[in-house]
From TrEMBL:
Keywords: Chromosome, Chromosome partition, Nucleus
SUPFAM superfamilies, sorted: Winged helix' DNA-binding domain (SSF46785)
Any one of the GO CC terms: nucleus
Rad21/Rec8-like protein C-terminal eukaryotic domain boundaries: 9-58
Source lineage: Eukaryota, Metazoa, Chordata, Craniata, Vertebrata
Family assignment from sequence similarity: Belongs to the rad21 family.
Any one Pfam family match given in the protein's UniProt record, by short name: Rad21_Rec8
GO BP annotations listed: chromosome segregation
Protein name: Rad21/Rec8-like protein C-terminal eukaryotic domain-containing protein
Compartment annotation: Chromosome; Nucleus
Amino acid sequence: ALEGLQGAKSFSLLALCKDNNSKEVASKFYSLLDLKKHQAVNVAQSAPYADIIVTKGTMFHTL
């Protein structure tokens, strides 16, 4: 699922979770929240239920 993401400035959570079952999607979403909590990533969402775009956070290189 991470092919093509290396070196990318951002990625889509929807694209990352493509072809995953609900348990895998929930696990990835929880991991994303944990990374956000530790400021390793920033997240942006344009509207409720819209795709979540993920970018590097201030602490990305420390984890």
